[in-house]
Design goal:
single chain, mainly alpha, 2 domains, two-stranded parallel sheet, about 75% helix
Amino acid sequence: MIKRGYLLACIFIILGISLVVANDSSPAVGQGIHIALKCKTDFSISIMNSLQNVGANLSIYITTLQEDLAKVEPLSDDRDALRDFVKNTYEKDIKNSREAVNQWRKDQYRNLTKEQKTTLQQAYQDARTSFDGCQLDALKALSDKRVQDMKDSLVPYQSRIDKLSEKGLDVTELQKILADAQIQIITPLQNALDSAKDAQSIQDALRKYCLFNGCRNGVNYHLEAKFETERLNQILAYLQKNNSSNETAQKLAQAQIALNSAKGLLLEIGTTNFGDQGKQLWSTLKSVQQILKETYAMHTEVKHE
């Protein structure tokens, strides 16, 4: 027999389940949110329709959620606007529908016949099965996009490496950084997704592997930080090799000390989320970059004297 808390469970618990979306600016983020909301909206409407079949009047809430969902898709490419709409409109409408269902349960559930309760139970089970399938398909689509986005994000870095190589810098370590990104993040993520049998396994994989700094408790590769540190390292090495004055030598020594500090921070951070150390790291790298710019300007002046 259906339990008394059934109507609350179907709205409170299931609508609380959401898809994992990236914590970075990946194009998959907006699309993932849209798919997640569609699963949740279809589920809630299905439940409310089943309640209407036994006398509830929830059509205004059904229409509102349908209209909300129609507004979500055009916002998929505008992450900030999408999140604002979800927070300030969609979630409020979900809350209103949830409260309406709860009120109906308090007022009318005890008046339902045994057959009606059985019908609601079956409707819930059918809706839940559809929701689970929707969530799994959505996660698979999102995970495919995530992997492709990671691969695509390496392309601009390769272009930067090519330009640095043309200028005579040693790019061996920069190439290794890109290769390791594939080996340590993209390939393991793809393997984990390929072997995933359910939504939870996919969620776990998406939470575990991040190319930048998006995983709270997973493996963060910190691609941009590693790349920038090594790029500055090679520029410094180039200037040290071609240095011709004591003044620039002093500047380069300052840069070397700061860069060593940044390297130490990066090693200390490892694959964890940046936290407060991230601000310190980027501040240090910014100071190194400024010193190198000044040194290069001095080097150029000396060269033309």
